[in-house]
Amino acid sequence: MASGDNRPTLPNGLDGQGLRIGVVRAEWNTSIVDRLVDGAVGGLDALKATVVGPISVPGCFELPMACRILARSGDVDAIVATGVVIRGETTHYEIVSEGAASGIQAVQLETGIPIAFGVLTVETVEQALERSQGEGQHNVGEEAAAVAVEMARLVEQYD
């Protein structure tokens, strides 16, 4: 890791040139999701990947279906799913976050298209803001962009 921050060090030579990476975003908690999408798109641009989207859905529970549609389209080599689920006073948090995570996992296994999980599941708005900072800082969207490129290259190499 670079000194002074918690950002992961990207693998040397990671290059997205020639890859088409879809970005799917949930509209719930839009101001934070905007930051994640900016991070994802910025990360993909830096890695020289072509960005497809972003495609919007109402909330995180709908992310798996949108990812499945995009994965089956043949238009992408990988996908970055972005959204935010913030704990509230009911079990809604558990239902939505588990549904999004397990649904996205099922889609990537079914389709063979990697889906990077850029979905924040946090206790507070402050935690979400910490994980969706601007360029050069901790941004889960940017990290997910690198994961999408790395996994697309893995599929390309071994599939």
Task: Summarize the structure in words.
- This protein is α/β, with parallel strands linked by helices.
- Helices cover 45% and strands 20% of the residues.
- It has a 4-stranded parallel sheet with strand order 2-1-3-4, sandwiched between helices.
- Helix 2 runs parallel beside helix 3.
- The radius of gyration is 15 Å and the shape is globular.
- The N terminus is likely disordered.
Describe, in short, the structure shown.
This protein is an alpha/beta fold. 45% of the residues lie in helices and 20% in strands. The chain has 5 helices and 4 strands; from the N terminus they run E-H-E-H-E-H-E-H-H.
Structural class label: alpha/beta
Query: Helix fraction?
Result: 40-55%
* Gap from first CA to last CA: 30 Å
What's the arrangement of strands in the largest beta sheet?
2-1-3-4
Give me the oligomer status.
Answer: single chain
User: Approximately how much beta-strand content do the residues carry?
Assistant: 15-25%
The residue ranges in which pLDDT falls below 50 over 5 or more consecutive positions are: 1-9
* CA-based gyration radius: 15 Å
CATH class: Alpha Beta
Order of helices and strands: EHEHEHEHH
Biggest sheet overview: 4 strands, parallel
Number of separate strands:
4
The average pLDDT value, as a whole number, equals 92
Within the CATH hierarchy, at the fold level, what is the topology? Rossmann fold
The rough form would be described as globular
CATH-scheme architecture: 3-Layer(aba) Sandwich
What's the number of structural domains? 1
| Total number of helices | 5
CATH homologous superfamily grouping: Lumazine/riboflavin synthase
